[in-house]
Protein 1
Amino acid sequence: MLDDQSSHMDDIAELIAQDPALTSKLLRLANSALFRFPSQIHSIAKAVNVIGGEALYNLVIAETARSVIEHFGEEPIDVNRFWRQSVLCSLLAKDLARMAKIRGSERFFVLGLLHNLGELIVASQTPELATKCEQAGLDLAPWKHQQEIFEFTYADCSADVLKAWGLPDTLYLPITRLHDEKFALANKEAAVLLVAARVAFNEVTEANDTCQWLDAKLLNALDLTPDDIDDLLKMVKMEATGILALMGV
């Protein structure tokens, strides 16, 4: 409905009203300090107008992903870290795609949000190995640890599951080559997702360098500098805080 120009905000509000959990999160977001509206917002239609279509899209996707993934085993890994990493990656990927003038930047929000889904799945099936992988040091790139322990990466697992769910190939094929740096240097879309994923990982693991695991050539491919990444991360973290609060993280 958001993509359909003939849709009216009242129709979208009516659809949202059928989901009490989503309704409450929408109203909390619209009344939060993030939007600073001068008066309290009580109606769904008003809330939709205040936050706008893009923020609504992000909220719906994040809430849907959270509810779908709830049934996976979560004990072996730090779930709050998992969601911070996923949401940061989604926002970074969307903004980087926009900066790179890639059409359909909203798709990158979904790619970023689901790129590490495999970690939850692996944790539910082999919790001891997932814990071992999470506790591995930063002496080796995380995806290389995953390859050593499982003989595949979390991104490989994510892509296979998204494909099995019948999602469009545009929502899983980029994830299949997430860690292929040579491919990313020749493909701007791949570079966006790779850079977003690594910056998000570095942030949640509190790495000393925001651009750790990032070859300077990858940033050059997107006409970016480390300072650009730091500035973008500062802005994205503010938006991520709002989304994560609504998700209860």
Protein 2
Amino acid sequence: MTTQPTNPIIILVDPQLGENIGAAARAMFNLGLDELRLVKPRDGWPSLAADKNSAGALAQMQPVQVFETLAEAIADLHYVMAATARPRDMLKPVYTPKSGIEECRTRAAEGQKIGWIFGPERMGLINDAIAKSHGVITIPTNPDFSSLNLAQSVALLAYEWLRGDDDIPDKVLDPGDSFPVEQKKLEEFLTRLEDELETKRFFRTEEIRPTMKRNIRNMFTRADLTDQEVRTLHGMVSALIEQRKPPEPK
């Protein structure tokens, strides 16, 4: 039986600057993650620089836990992913962000506690840290410039996690207060438009008339018009009709 997945825990190993810890905290909290663990932060903890750079995120997240070793930081977790480049000298499953997060979500839905570990800013994770992970997530980057900062790496994986729990449609068009037009009203407008085009001899020959009418209809139906937009189109046609009327004699 599956349950609602528990969010992964972000673990920063040997982070160097408080500013970078704060930026990572801001990125993860922006995207719905709120549990951060630190392993031997170089400048100690708590950190005023981290608080400042988190833009208030640290104050709203769960209290940051600090550990002396990575083994202690992951002791209560069931599955750990290392965010790093592909390891060269060890056999380890390597995932893309999408496939890695899918694996994490499946396990989290079974009740497993998930952790993602990130290395220090300057050199990334060392092999001993990677060896403690079950798998590796490698973020594809420009091979000529592959350096991602800590907050970027955290944000990319957190975003993939958020997407898996996101029921927002891929495309949204907010019509505001105007509802989509009823087909009856759209048909009234299209009939009026065709009549006016007939008056102006827009349809040059009988042979092309059906095709041109169909193309015109396709343009307007494809636009998924609102009620207000159709009223506006009626007004445009009315304005054009008024303009071509001869002036009344004085």
